[in-house]
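Session log. Operator J.P. requested a structure for one protein chain; no other inputs attached. Running the standard single-chain path with C-alpha cell output.
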Amino acid sequence: MSSAHNGPVSILLLAGTAEARELADRLAAVQAMAERRMRVIASLAGATAKPSALGVETRIGGFGGKEGLVGFLREADIDVVVDATHPFAARITANAVDACMAAKIDYLRLERPAWQARPGDDWRSVATLAQAAALLPSGARVFLGIGRKEIATFAERGDVRFVMRMIDPPAAGARVPGGEIVLGRPCAHEGGEIALLRHHAITHVVAKNSGGLSGRAKIDAARTLALPVFMVDRPPSCGGHRVTSVAQAVRWIETWIASA
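Structure written below.
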C-alpha cells in the first residue's frame, strides 16, 4: 500500500467499459460524502469518437506507454489506479501494472467475469483472432462482433463474406474485409440480434469473450440459431489486486481510503 499521507486521496480510473461508467458514478457519490477530500480522474483512451460523459473529471487520450503513465502518475500525484478497461485491453493493463510498480502506488483491476458456455452453445475456442480467421470455412457468411480496430486480421479471407458491426467507421486507409459494415452498438435483446443474423444469412460468428451484459445477446442469438461461434479466449491476467464487480471495487476503495 502507498505511504500514508494527510492530503486528498487521488484516484486514476482507467475507463472505457460499462463497469467503469458505473464505478465513476459510485465514486462521485463517495467523493461527495467523503470526510477527507478525494479527487477522481477518469481516463478514456479515445477509442470512440463521441464518448458519453462520465460523472467525474475526465481526460481523453493515451499516456505514451508505461513511461508516459509513470510520469502522469507522479505529476498528478495519483495514490491508486483502478483499471476498469476492457478485458482485451491487454497492453493498457500491462502498462498500468508496470507503471504502478515503478511509481510505488497501489493498483486494482476491475474485470467482469468471462462468459461461460451454456447448453446448446457451439463454441470453437481460439487463442487469437488470427486463429479464428484461419479456421473459418470457405464460403462462410461471418458476423464479426469485435469492433473496428482488428478487422484487418480477416482481410485476406476473400473467400468469406463478413458483416462487421462497430460504433465508428474504420479509420481512413484501414484494410477492411469484403462484406458490409453495420454502424451501431450491440442490440440489448436477443431478438434484435436474431433478426440481424437472419437478415444477413449469417453462418458463423466471431466474438471475443468480453463478458458482461453488453454483447451477450449476440451469443444467445447464435445459440438459438444453432450457429457456431469462434470465441477468442481472454489474454492472461496481470498481477495486482483483482475484483469482478463494481460493488467489490467500491468496498476495496473505501477500505483503501480508510487506511491510507
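Operator note: The chain has two domains: 9-113+236-259, 123-232.
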